[in-house]
Amino acid sequence: MTSQAVVASRVVPSHLLYTTKSRWYATAAKTVQVPSFPESITSGGVQEWMKKVGDSVEMDETVVTLETDKTVIEVKAPMAGTVTETLCEVGDTVKAGQDIFKVSADGGSSDKSSTKQEKTEEPAKDSGPKHEKAKEAADKPSTSSKQEKEKQPEQQAAAPKQDKQPAEAPKSAPSKSSPADAPKAKVVASPPPAPTRGGSRTEHKEKMNRMRLRIAERLKDSQNTNAMLTTFQECDMFNLMQLRNEMKDEFQTKHKVKLGFMSAFVKASAAALREQPVVNAVIAEQEIVYRDYIDISVAVATPRGLVVPVVRDADLLSFADVEKTIAYLGEKARSDQITIEDMKGGTFTISNGGVYGSMMGTPIINPPQSSILGMHAITDRAVVVKGEIKIRPMMYLALTYDHRLIDGREAVTFLRKIKHGVEDPRRLLLDL
């Protein structure tokens, strides 16, 4: 036991002593446990330690983040103090109630400053004698350099004077043979240089995060379970774009949110779901479950994967309420603050691949739903409008549906309802 530990043991019992980075503290550490996970999640993985052993933390400051199948959970410090021990490594699987780290209310910043002072004082003490010797050596003039300076004038005087003009070189005898008489050497072509390859040809592996694993599992289950079929429509965006350009400034001034295209598609989808309730239903074993509410999931891309927060009761919301909800959920998803409650449920999904320039695609159903709408890029194309060829901004729409439950008639009628509502937004306002 060190002298510091002996001194500390005189004040407090030995069972209250602990060490961190060879420092002793006379206080008990509080053990922090993994919080309870949301419903349907049983375990998580340690994603990143925001604080290391010896770091000071404030109350409710995040110490470690846990990654689950659907979201990221932050484990925070229950009090201000110092992290004294971490009980898990990055990548370890943890369960609710498991000990994960320890934190103490004492021994924070004061010990760090004392450690820094000890490190700065030690070099000063050790370098005392060496510094004096170096100073004495610097004060004495170098005898060798002094002698060299005295010899320089003597060497310059003793050196013989050389003629300024160099001696003429002897004339060479004229050559008997001229260059024209010499045989010509054969020129051999050199091989072409080897092509230089840019970059490297190495490979590396990365462990899939839990969300990506869960997404892969759900997508494959969807393919194996649903009898998926996709139908297409093209949508003229001229009227909606004109309405947006005319009203976007006034809309943003009043509602404090930008007017986009998603609100029109959400409202058009909600109206179509009311007319075709089978598209809002789902198969559960040998029964069909009809949902009397309309909760529309909106796909949002994040650095960790695709998440689908839910706009609840979309049929009861206004355009402004839809835009505010989407903006709020999208910001939470991109900042890794999305929760399970934000993504739970959902009866229909809208995926907008057009923001990345996708011209056309076949989206995959998001279980336990029965259909999904795919939006795509807006491109100018020549179309026939009232017998005349005009250039219009067009978008391809794709509806993938479970053919076990939804027939082609319902699917095509549903998609045409969305098309007409977006092409003429007045129909949405008049409930036509």
Question: How would you characterize this protein structure?
Answer:
The protein is an alpha+beta fold. 33% of the residues lie in helices and 25% in strands. The protein has helices at residues 3-11, 109-126, 128-139, 143-158, 210-225, 238-255, 262-275, 319-334, 340-343, 408-423, 426-429, and strands at 17-20, 23-26, 30-33, 43-49, 56-57, 62-67, 72-76, 81-86, 93-95, 99-104, 228-236, 282-284, 287-289, 296-298, 300-302, 305-307, 310-311, 348-352, 371-385, 388-402. It is globular, with a radius of gyration of 39 Å. The model is unreliable at 1-26, 108-125, 140-147 and 157-164 (pLDDT under 50).
**What is the total tally of β strands?**
20
**Poorly predicted parts:** 1-26, 108-125, 140-147, 157-164
Going across the biggest sheet, name each strand in turn.
11-20-19-18-14-17
Taking the sheet with the most strands, its summary is: 6 strands, mixed
Strand fraction: 25-35%
How many H/I helices? Answer: 11
Overall pLDDT confidence? 77
Which bin fits the share of residues in helices?
25-40%
Rg over alpha carbons: 39 Å
Amino-to-carboxy terminus distance: 85 Å
Overall outline: globular
Give me the secondary-structure category: alpha+beta
List the topology elements.
Elements: H1 3-11, E1 17-20, E2 23-26, E3 30-33, E4 43-49, E5 56-57, E6 62-67, E7 72-76, E8 81-86, E9 93-95, E10 99-104, H2 109-126, H3 128-139, H4 143-158, H5 210-225, E11 228-236, H6 238-255, H7 262-275, E12 282-284, E13 287-289, E14 296-298, E15 300-302, E16 305-307, E17 310-311, H8 319-334, H9 340-343, E18 348-352, E19 371-385, E20 388-402, H10 408-423, H11 426-429
Parallel strand pairs: 14-18, 18-19
Antiparallel strand pairs: 1-2, 3-10, 4-6, 4-9, 5-8, 6-7, 8-10, 11-20, 12-13, 14-17, 15-16, 19-20
Helix pairs in contact: 7-8, 7-10
